[in-house]
Specification:
single chain; about 675 residues; alpha+beta; Penicillin binding protein transpeptidase fold; 5-stranded mixed beta sheet; 5-stranded antiparallel beta sheet; 21 helices; elongated; carboxypeptidase; transmembrane; Penicillin-binding protein, 1A family
């Protein structure tokens, strides 16, 4: 049995003692209440006297160029719109918002004690913020003045700012600002922007069904997005309509009719971006780099610092647009990166992003003869020299024991030199026979290993055709691999983002630089590839646009045209072709060179600098290209090549020897004297 309560008569304490205790308890309670009242009053007076913080505008996720200029916003909702007065919003939207977010908004103060205590209990149990108890005023304070991080400190600041808001502004002003700035998903801040985004109409035109759907979004913009999760959005709309019935705003019949009404969601158009292919690539890279979701980018307060050079980007776009034939379906891609760091300075993935957002700078195509740079780089590491000669003629190679292990190599147009070529001539002419002979002589595996070492990660097979670039790569990948030749032998990682700032901190792209070839080899390849831009070289069409030296290599397949080249400041890869794989005409196969030349000419003027200096241990030797031996004064078409110590030719050219000067014939008098004596 429970113990009964004691009456005063039954109490063991004397009556005087009991009265003294009661007085002390009453005084203590009064003092505590008074202190709390005074403290609360002082806080409220202080909040009333302090001005509100300057209103912070919403901060959508932004891309900035290398020099800090904004180039794109993640938000597809477009530019910020002028705030609407409360009376301009449809009644349905106002009532749906109140019923869903804060039914007692006009009766309660800034903070709902009951909701806050419930949320605190849940959050303490989990050790982090997992549930909110925010009123409309608190949500407005968060959107106007605070970041989106979920911490106890931020919740406390939110509560103080909510109290301050209601001490300074009337309820109608708070509700109006809420409807103009709250986040509705996909970068849409405020109901006017959300109405245009989801329904393609002004917010004033929303009906009950549409208003109920919008009002349900702030609780979970990504979770209930009608663009991504229409079924969840409809379920959330039902919850909003039922709350409107419960609060007396609408009848059950009106709620049922609104729920049954078909929703006409506007087609989600991607935003028009500056440098759209680059911007899309940068957004995706930033998400991987900082572990962000689309929802994080949608919520804003993210600043992505990119590597883009706006002047070079415009030059790249202009070079492509001015070269490709008007009205043609021919496409092109261009990638320009800093060889020292891998930072992408310009990128174009096609001629029109609105027509086709596919980024061809990341598409795989056969590189053709641009792959020969890796064949010859591998050969120079295995004892070949620039003086090595191979006969340029129609050749059938036998590379295995089977009768089927034969490979006949054709040069472009079946035009051959008909004589031995040096490595410089083979690169300038893009001779296929020389390339396949080199691969078979040094071994296909060594070629593949060399290419992978420089950054080519695509799967390759040890076929004789490997030397002719039959295994697809991307323009970005090819440009990054050539960077090792341009920077003195280092592999770099191509990237579009330098750093990402979020409310939680900064993530910086690490500089990854690994030596993969010697500076001597890098210089030898650079010097040899200058011949491509010389008279008779396959890239000579780009030469008129240039203002300074450059190294390059062209490549052509039936369906792809390439040119990749560089200076000490920039590596540029250009691809031209059809998405369908349609064969190129003769004229179309020569369009990569003028695109490359137009862009590189602008880049040289924009990024001037000295040309390469040969490493001190390389020996410059003048040789005759017909014989590969040391040139004599009689050799008319001599070339200067660079050799490692002990590898240069020692014999003089046997084809152009100095003339033998005969001894003077003895005079008749001398002969007479000899006979006389």
């Amino acid at each position: 049995m429970p113990k009964p309560f004691l009456s005063d008569a039954d109490s063991p304490l004397p009556r005087r003692t009991r009265r003294s205790f009661a007085r002390v308890a009453a005084m203590a309670f009064g003092a505590a209440f008074g202190a709390g009242f005074v403290g609360t009053s002082l806080v409220l007076v202080g909040l009333k006297l302090l001005p509100l913080p300057s209103t912070a505008k919403t901060a959508p996720t932004e891309l900035t160029s290398a020099d800090g200029r904004p180039i794109a916003l993640w938000s597809p909702a477009g530019q910020a719109r002028a705030a609407l007065p409360l009376g301009a919003f449809p009644r349905w939207l106002v009532e749906a918002t109140l019923a869903t977010e804060d039914a007692n908004f006009y009766r309660d103060h800034a903070i709902s004690v009951r909701s806050t205590l419930r949320a605190v209990a849940v959050n303490v149990r989990h050790g982090e913020i997992v549930q909110g108890g925010s009123t409309i005023t608190q949500q407005l304070a968060k959107n106007l003045y605070l970041t989106q991080d979920r911490t106890f400190g931020r919740k406390l600041r939110e509560a103080m700012l909510a109290l301050q808001l209601e001490l300074h502004e009337p309820k109608d002003w708070i509700l109006d600002r809420y409807l103009n700035v709250v986040y509705y998903g996909h970068g849409a801040y405020g109901a006017p922007a959300a109405s245009q985004l989801y329904f393609g109409k002004p917010v004033q035109s929303l009906d009950l069904a549409e208003s109920a759907l919008l009002a349900g979004l702030p609780k979970g913009p990504a979770l209930y997005s009608p663009l991504d999760h229409l079924e969840r959005a409809k379920a959330r709309q039902r919850v909003v309509l039922e709350r409107m019935v419960q609060t007396g705003y609408i009848t059950q019949a009106e709620a049922d009719a609104a729920y049954a009404e078909p929703l006409h969601i506007a087609r989600h158009q991607p935003p028009t971006l500056q440098a759209p292919y680059f911007s899309e690539m940068a957004f995706n890279e930033a998400k991987r780099m900082a572990r962000l979701t689309d929802g994080d980018l949608d919520a804003g307060y993210v600043r992505i610092h990119t590597t883009l050079d706006p002047l070079l980007q415009k030059a790249a776009e202009r070079a492509i647009q001015s070269t490709l034939p008007k009205g043609s379906q021919l496409e092109a891609a261009l990638v320009a990166l800093d060889p020292q760091t891998g930072a992408i300075r310009a990128l174009v993935g096609g001629r029109d992003y609105r027509e086709s957002p596919f980024n061809r700078a990341l598409g795989k195509r056969q590189p053709g003869s641009t792959f020969k740079a890796f064949v010859y780089g591998a050969a120079l590491t295995r004892g070949w020299t620039p003086a090595r000669e191979v006969d340029s003629k129609l050749t059938t190679f036998i590379y295995g024991p089977s009768p089927k292990d034969e490979y006949t190599v054709h040069d472009y147009g079946d035009i051959y030199a008909g004589r031995p070529l040096t490595l410089r001539e083979a690169i300038a002419r893009s001779d296929n026979v020389y390339a396949v002979q080199t691969e078979l002589a040094i071994g296909a595996q060594n070629v593949m290993d060399f290419a992978k070492k420089l950054g080519i990660q695509e799967e390759m097979k040890p076929y004789p055709s490997l030397a002719l670039g039959v295994f697809p790569v991307t323009p970005v990948e090819l440009a990054a691999a050539y960077a090792a030749f341009a920077n003195g032998g280092y592999r770099v990682t191509p990237h579009a983002v330098e750093s990402v700032d979020t409310p939680y901190g900064r993530t910086v792209h690490p500089l990854e630089k690994t030596r993969v070839i010697s500076p001597e080899l890098a210089f030898q390849m650079t010097d040899l590839m200058q011949s491509v831009l010389a008279p008779g070289g396959t890239g000579y069409g780009a030469r008129p646009y240039l203002h300074a030296p450059a190294a390059a290599k062209t490549g052509t397949t039936d369906t792809d045209a390439w040119m990749v080249g560089y200076t000490p400041r920039l590596v540029v890869a250009v691809w031209v072709g059809y998405d369908s794989g349609r064969p190129l005409t003769v004229q179309e196969s020569h369009l990569a060179a003028p695109i490359w030349g137009k862009f590189m000419g602008t880049a040289q003027a924009h990024l001037p600098g000295p040309w390469y200096t040969p490493p001190s241990d390389l020996e410059a030797v003048r040789i005759d290209p017909l014989s590969g031996a040391l040139a004599t004064p009689q050799c008319g078409a001599a070339e200067t090549d660079y050799f490692l110590p002990g590898t240069a030719p020692t014999a003089t050219c046997p084809l152009h020897r100095p003339p033998v000067v005969p001894e003077p014939a003895p005079s008749r008098w001398w002969n007479w004297l000899r006979r006389l004596f």
